Amino acid sequence: MKNAVILFGSPRKRGNTAELARAVSTALQAKGWGVRTLYLNDMNIRPCQGCYACLPGGVCKIQDDMKDVRKYIMESDLVVYATPIYWFGPSGQLKLAMDRSIAFMDENFVSRLKGKMAITLTTFGDEHIDSCQPAIDMFTKTFALLNIAYAGQVNAPGCQPQGGIGSQYIDQAKLLADSIA
Ligand SMILES: Cc1cc2nc3c(=O)[nH]c(=O)nc-3n(C[C@H](O)[C@H](O)[C@H](O)COP(=O)(O)O)c2cc1C
Questions:
Q1: 153 lines ligand 1 (CB under 6 A)
Q2: Which residues lie closer than 8 Å to 67 by C-beta, 6 or more apart?
Q3: CA-based Rg of the chain, rounded to a whole angstrom?
Q4: What pLDDT sits at residue 23?
Q5: Which residue's alpha carbon is nearest to atom 8 within ligand 1?
Q6: CB of 84 shorter than 6 A to ligand 1
Q7: Which is the closest atom of ligand 1 to the Cα of 165?
Q8: Cα(2) to centroid of ligand 1, in Å?
Q9: Cα angle vertex 98, ends 26, 44, to 5°?
Q10: pLDDT of amino acid 161
Q11: pTM score, two decimals?
């Protein structure tokens, strides 16, 4: 069985980002995938301390819930980065986990994640699609360094807190998951 882990970066479990994540999760599960959603906002993930102690063995000195994030990423074929856009980037909840992903590198900066895939799901209030571009650039460069294949993205503009998300973006998320599964 193939596995996916959703790094869910929104604090709102019933918000716009959740709708995209649910569409992906449902579509993957329908094809027999195991899907685990990690609600990062509920987890204790401390900021990276920049000590590089993790590089040789892949084990961070900070003992917190990042060990679970690491375990599920290592067990997964696909990592789904799902986030609202906060100030043109990912949410702080997701950025903390991304910073801590330095532990996936070894001492020669060779990634331990080779062979995995990633997709990204973003929602944001602006009507202009380029509002998410800094985040997409960050994901693109990060996945290149982590040696994981960027298998697709859904970016949903016009997402107001109470206004909901356009159904076309939920359709796109389902299609993206179907194309991978
Ligand atoms: C702190 C904060 C920063 C935000 N920054 C942006 C932004 O830079 N660009 C934008 O278009 N929307 C921005 N938004 C709007 C959210 O990205 C948007 O409403 C999103 O769909 C919320 O996702 P959620 O429903 O999962 O919480 C921001 C919202 C908050 C709370």
A1: no
A2: 60
A3: 16
A4: 98
A5: 87
A6: yes
A7: 21
A8: 32
A9: 80
A10: 84
A11: 0.98
- Quick one: which of 138, 137, 125, 7 has its CA closest to 65? 7
Spatial CA neighbour of 19 closest among 163, 140, 126: 163
- Residues 126-149 have pLDDT tens digits of 999 999 999 999 999 999 999 999
| Whether the CB of 109 sits within 6 Å of ligand 1 | no
Query: For helices 92-100 and 66-75, what crossing angle results, to 10°?
Result: 70
Query: 78-111 burial, b for 16+ CB within 10 Å, e for fewer?
Result: bbbbbbbbbeebbbebbbbbbbbbbbbbeeeeeb
Q: Could you identify the residue written with the tokens 């796109």?
A: 172
Domains, the chain: 3-121+137-147+169-180 (3.40.50.360)
One-letter amino acid at 26 equals T
Length of the chain: 181
pLDDT of 66-103, one tens digit each?
999 999 999 999 999 999 999 999 999 999 999 999 99
Ligand 1 neighbourhood includes 91 CB (under 6 angstroms): no
